[in-house]
Amino acid sequence: MNMMKHMHIVLFIVFLYTSNPSFSYANDICVAETNINTPSGYECKPQDKLTVDDFVFSGFVPGEIKKPFNVKLTVVSAEKLRGLNGLGLSAARVDIGINGTVAMHVHPDESELLMMVQGKVTAGFVTTEKAYVKDIKVGDVFVFPKGQLHFLINSGTEIAIAFVAYSSSTPTFQFLDDLLFGKNHLNTSIIAQTTFLDVAQIEKLKGRFGGSGSG
């Protein structure tokens, strides 16, 4: 099955996903004025100023590689496709290299629907009660409920590609490794006390993810 056929399947699934009555709160058309962001979201572009380009995104191709995970991520949110604003919908493309991974992360306010179009991945999420993990392949769809810690690992022999739909036009991402080791929010001693990791290992991880050594 070629990529165009994959895209048609994805668009059909996304339509079903967002046509549920639970999404009836969404605005019909509120194209985002991305330079005017208020506490309640983007302001709406005047109707008489709308053009077809407000509803089109070009560039749903592999993004820049994210090191050290060997993964490429292209997110299409209201910031890039302004016509998505208020519709409770956004999309992403994930390209995972051989032995690559999408590290443990959460979307605090969104559920995620992942559709495999190439390769094979091991996907899963973790709740307070149980871990739900499965190898998924082309034609499989996996849902990650809102706020659950989840991951993807390329468990095949080729680049794995998946398309994603989020239940928000402005999805948020919180990566565990980046929060702990890529930011300078917590010093090493606090991370060691709260995770029981060795100080030397924490400083090594901070060096790899861009955080300060002992900060």
From TrEMBL:
<feature type="binding site">
    <location>
        <position position="107"/>
    </location>
    <ligand>
        <name>Mn(2+)</name>
    </ligand>
</feature>
<dbReference type="InterPro" id="IPR014710">
    <property type="entry name" value="RmlC-like_jellyroll"/>
</dbReference>
<dbReference type="GO" id="GO:0030145">
    <property type="term" value="F:manganese ion binding"/>
</dbReference>
<feature type="domain" description="Cupin type-1">
    <location>
        <begin position="57"/>
        <end position="203"/>
    </location>
</feature>
<dbReference type="InterPro" id="IPR011051">
    <property type="entry name" value="RmlC_Cupin_sf"/>
</dbReference>
<keyword id="KW-0964">Secreted</keyword>
<feature type="signal peptide">
    <location>
        <begin position="1"/>
        <end position="26"/>
    </location>
</feature>
<keyword id="KW-0479">Metal-binding</keyword>
<dbReference type="GO" id="GO:0048046">
    <property type="term" value="C:apoplast"/>
</dbReference>
<dbReference type="InterPro" id="IPR006045">
    <property type="entry name" value="Cupin_1"/>
</dbReference>
<feature type="binding site">
    <location>
        <position position="150"/>
    </location>
    <ligand>
        <name>Mn(2+)</name>
    </ligand>
</feature>
<keyword id="KW-0464">Manganese</keyword>
<feature type="binding site">
    <location>
        <position position="107"/>
    </location>
    <ligand>
        <name>oxalate</name>
    </ligand>
</feature>
<feature type="disulfide bond">
    <location>
        <begin position="30"/>
        <end position="44"/>
    </location>
</feature>
<keyword id="KW-0052">Apoplast</keyword>
<keyword id="KW-0732">Signal</keyword>
<feature type="binding site">
    <location>
        <position position="112"/>
    </location>
    <ligand>
        <name>oxalate</name>
    </ligand>
</feature>
<dbReference type="Pfam" id="PF00190">
    <property type="entry name" value="Cupin_1"/>
</dbReference>
<dbReference type="InterPro" id="IPR001929">
    <property type="entry name" value="Germin"/>
</dbReference>
<keyword id="KW-0325">Glycoprotein</keyword>
<keyword id="KW-1015">Disulfide bond</keyword>
<feature type="binding site">
    <location>
        <position position="105"/>
    </location>
    <ligand>
        <name>Mn(2+)</name>
    </ligand>
</feature>
<protein>
    <recommendedName>
        <fullName>Germin-like protein</fullName>
    </recommendedName>
</protein>
<comment type="similarity">
    <text>Belongs to the germin family.</text>
</comment>
<feature type="binding site">
    <location>
        <position position="112"/>
    </location>
    <ligand>
        <name>Mn(2+)</name>
    </ligand>
</feature>
